[in-house]
Specification:
Length: about 150
C-alpha cells in the first residue's frame, strides 16, 4: 500500500472525530468538557474567537438550535449570544460620533465563540461551510492571526 493511501484513513478518522465532536466515550481529556454559555459584555472576548453572524430573519428556534450545537462542540469553551443592539452599543463606545449619525442599526445578531485551541478554528469554520445554517458568515478575530 502506498504511503498516501495509508494516510487517508487517519485523515478521515480525524475529520470524522472533529465533525462529530470528540474521541472515545471514556476519555477524560479537557476537550470533553462542555462549553459554557456566557453573558456578553461591552467588549468582545480576548484572544482567538470566532464571530458567527446570523441571518437577519433567523427565528428564535433556529438560533437556539445553533446555540445548542455550539455548546455541544468539544472544540469550543465559551459561547455568547450578542444581539444587534449590544453590538451597536459596542460600536458607539468605539466610534461615538459615527454612531450618533446612524439612522438605523446595521449590525446583525451574532454568536461569539471562544475556541479551546487556535487550531480548533479550522474544523469549526469548516463545519459551518459544510452544513450551513442560519448564518451569514464566520469570521476569526485578529488574535487568530487572520485579517479582520
Amino acid at each position: 500500500m502506498s504511503r498516501g493511501l495509508r494516510l487517508i484513513p487517519l485523515g478521515l478518522s480525524l475529520l470524522v472525530l472533529a465533525a462529530c465532536g470528540g474521541g472515545s466515550a471514556g476519555s477524560s481529556t479537557t476537550t470533553d468538557a462542555a462549553a459554557k454559555l456566557v453573558t456578553p459584555g461591552l467588549t468582545p472576548p480576548k484572544g482567538c474567537f470566532l464571530t458567527v453572524f446570523l441571518l437577519e430573519d433567523v427565528t428564535g428556534k433556529q438560533r437556539l438550535r445553533l446555540q445548542r450545537q455550539l455548546l455541544a462542540n468539544p472544540l469550543i469553551t465559551e459561547v455568547s449570544y450578542v444581539p444587534r443592539g449590544l453590538e451597536l452599543r459596542r460600536f458607539a463606545k468605539r466610534h461615538p460620533l459615527i454612531a450618533r449619525g446612524m439612522l438605523f442599526n446595521p449590525f446583525s445578531d451574532r454568536f461569539e465563540v471562544v475556541l479551546r485551541t487556535h487550531d480548533a478554528m479550522f474544523p469549526v469554520i469548516a463545519a459551518f461551510a459544510k452544513h450551513g445554517g442560519p448564518t451569514l458568515n464566520v469570521r476569526p478575530s485578529t488574535a487568530c492571526g487572520q485579517p479582520s
